[in-house]
Model the fold of this input.
Amino acid sequence: MDIVIPLFQRFEPLDAIGPYEILAYVPGAKVRFVAPEPGVITDVLGALPVEVRTRYSEVESCDVLLVPGGGGTRELIADPEFLAWVRRIHAGTRFTTSVCTGSQVLGAAGLLDGLTATTHWEAVADLEGHGAVYTPERVVRQGKIITSAGVSSGIDMALQLAALLTDETTAQAIQLYTEYDPQPPFDSGSVAKAPAAALKRARTLDEERRRG
Done:
């Protein structure tokens, strides 16, 4: 079972690493990273270099395609060769998935036209601009396309995907082994529940991060 995760400069780390951790435990699965060119890919936070040895163009097919998000998705959306590769790979996948703003890549490739999908709450307008119908759900499945909301939601998506690829007992075992039992100290993990002050502060975090 071949699971491919394309990385790119300024990818969101948990978008990729969270699902990777879960899916690597799927029996018989091989999870591999690919990139536009072999070499070191650095996450959007700037401190997690990942050495990727395979060009995405070397991949002709896979069972699962998982596109993470991050600031670098803007370049992917503007890259016709990458979008053509996504369409070509999607034609033969069992599941094509995304985390966070990775759904914009699927949308730009023409895979979400008229479909219900989700993304990070700050990227709703961009997603809808690619023809999708946004829903604030954490994980959305439309046939073989599965989109998940912001960052940490990729773990939830990966567990659902693990169940689809194997069975619920195996997925539950993976959840138990990784001890994924969220008990957050605050109930502010969605726009619908967050206090106004937290929402206002959240809108400044990415800009502050970019300023370093």
The chain has a mean pLDDT of 97. The domain at 2-181 is CATH 3.40.50.880 (Rossmann fold). The beta strands are 2-6, 30-34, 39-42, 49-52, 64-67, 95-99, 116-117, 133-134, 139-142, 145-148.
